[in-house]
Give the backbone structure.
Amino acid sequence: MTGWKASDIPDQSGRVAVVTGANSGIGYVTARELARHGARVLLACRSETRGIEASDRIRAEVRDADVQFVPLDLGSLDSVRKFASAYDRDHGRLDLLINNAGVMALPYGRTADGFETQFGVNHLGHFALTGLLMPRLLAAPEARVVSVSSGFHALANIDIDDLNSEGRYRRWIAYARSKTANLLFVHELARRLAAVGSGVVAAAAHPGYASTNLQTKGPRMEGRKAVERVVSLGNRVFAQSADAGALPTLYAATAPGVAPDSFTGPRLQGWRGAPAPSWRAPWTLNDTAGERLWAASEELTGVTYDALKV
């Protein structure tokens, strides 16, 4: 793993990948590099304009890139179901599912289905998407599911009795809980895959401090221009590039020997550098918490992982 770079990605020819939130930031870099190494990549994005623009940019950067925009709004379970239905109709195999899209520290809001926005988009949307695409993943040899979490998960455990932050909303705590949910989801998914003898690898990654538009969206939505300027300055001065931030995701998705339920991040204090095993809060490895979150997620989304029942 020492000094692992995008050029170390193994040949992905013949493999098919779905990358959520692939129109910008580390999602864009992830999609571009998978395409550069031969994968067919579907860019699953909410905005048609930005999704098509991203596809065009990848084709301009990578000769013969096989990429396609497909609409997906993780804040709408109807959109998630339509995406999965269209995938079954229009595509064959699925080797890589990169659960990358996310929102961070937004003002309080709700998704189309009434979930708190950060929990709904960051966790529930991806939980539903993965469940609906699971039959495709189980049918592919050496398939992987990679969920992008964050070092900020360490700020807070989930509150199983208030998953939608209806008691008190604190934007950063809600974000941390959604990122803890990502790790608990990977933990429980890996356990269930092992229980049915599947070779699908469920792993997690995080980008450290990478310069993307994720950090500025919340302040921009609220018109907090001073905060937006400070965050933008921090991105320019302290953050690593989106290209570097995508490396842990690409490693988890493609490197040989990635272990189920592993968590990969930047080597230097979890902030920047080449991919390395990352520290994670002990509550993200709690079997009981994983089971309870899974049961709640099935109830809230109506998506059950029937293929993983033992």
